[in-house]
């Protein structure tokens, strides 16, 4: 445990507050999205700006203190916190500055997706991001960033034009295609291994303010036909279309028919972000296919689409996620999903098929650190539950499901869905880009300052 004089030494150098155990606000500041994470940092530095971040990095290096960065605190593995170390809490740094002429947004390292979407949508602009508005831009963007607009505009990393990062030597580096190109490459998928990003510069696109959304819910008995339909629909859909297929329990609320509340169902959540008349034509099959228990097609504010799924993942519940990338959705993979589903343990558990293709796969697998450009789908088991006594059951079910899907995987996994007990999964997350990332790590963080959790190691 670090002593209090070290904490006051750091406090003297910061504008923001340094919280230590027992301080007002400490317990609140160490709460993460995943209620299963119980790390207790020695200090949480609530940074007010880049100077605070630089001071924290220098302090950690000079005093040999483990350090971690906290963006939105949404990472299921809890790598935003470090036991007995220093947490660089970026949550006070949430500004988003949009240049509507240049169509760019400068986003501070603690902003959430809702901060980003609110500011960009004021100008009818957006950059592709994730599907939960509470997620931090930083963690999401550094790992890839998969969401409703990805088939049209690429991953979040594909829209990153530049970043400011404080590296292990305490220097602030501006990285882009011509300055520190290697680091810029690494940040686009390589996670938080290389330093603390204080600011991101994103390219924006004209989107909204409304997009067309089609949602259809089918009982799980119809899963084989629905999954086959989904496979063929998305393979033919234009890039303006995003369509997630989720397996979940029917929420116990209107407008879902009461007799189906709590049953296992498949949800097709599609959007068309282009011309709405064309969108209606393209999305019509989602609404009309099969025998849905609920099906609707309607224009929706883009910001509403971006927060549509938030309620399904309550903050503070227990979460354990695992993922694969699939080269195709084969008949054998569909059979396996049906065989493995059991009683879908965990009130908030779901499965997700995330469509790749389109603009995502136009990028070469080695052009950025995110390597999964040849996959057709991301597939994840998103287990979520409330009661700690169910931990073994739900985690065991999730691992068994993940193992059963292994034969259908590219061998890759999504770094942003890697759990705390990941073992070798970091290698599969970076695939062919792993060795290059290690070289860059050697250059910018040779002593492994940012290695508090299992990550890319310089040695
Ligand atoms: C409910 C839910 C929905 C999600 N939906 C999507 C989705 O649609 N698409 C998708 O791609 N992902 C999704 N994710 C995964 C998400 O991208 C990751 O959990 C991401 O890491 C969260 O970022 P954060 O900043 O909130 O996390 P944090 O927990 O704060 O950080 C995650 C990691 O990034 C590091 N980090 C954070 N900020 C910085 C920084 N400024 N500089 C350097 N390193 C930093 C942390 O140290 C940690 O290792 C979802 C997660 C949840 C829980």
CATH fold type of the largest domain = Vanillyl-alcohol Oxidase, Chain A, domain 3
Share of residues in strands: 15-25%
> How would the global form be characterised?
globular
Alpha carbon gap, first and last residue: 27 Å
* DSSP strand tally: 18
What is this structure, in a nutshell?
By secondary structure, the protein is an alpha+beta fold. It is built from 15 helices and 18 strands.
Structural description of this entry:
The chain has about 450 residues and is of the alpha+beta class. It folds into three domains: about 5-90, Uridine Diphospho-n-acetylenolpyruvylglucosamine Reductase, domain 2, CATH 3.30.43; about 95-205, Uridine Diphospho-n-acetylenolpyruvylglucosamine Reductase, domain 3, CATH 3.30.465; about 210-415, Vanillyl-alcohol Oxidase, Chain A, domain 3 (3-Layer(aba) Sandwich), CATH 3.40.462.20. It is built from 15 helices and 18 strands. The chain has helices at about 5-10, 25-30, 50-65, 115-120, 135-145, 150-155, 180-185, 225-235, 275-290, 300-305, 330-340, 360, 390-405, 425-430, 435-445, and strands at about 20, 45, 65-70, 85-90, 95-100, 105-110, 125, 160-165, 170-175, 195-205, 205, 210-220, 240-250, 265-270, 295-300, 320-325, 350-355, 375-385. A seven-stranded antiparallel sheet has the order 15-12-14-13-17-18-16. It has a five-stranded antiparallel sheet with strand order 5-6-10-8-9. It has a four-stranded mixed sheet with strand order 1-2-4-3. A hairpin with a 5-residue loop joins strand 8 and strand 9. The longest helix is centred in the C-terminal third of the chain and has 15 residues, at about 390-405.
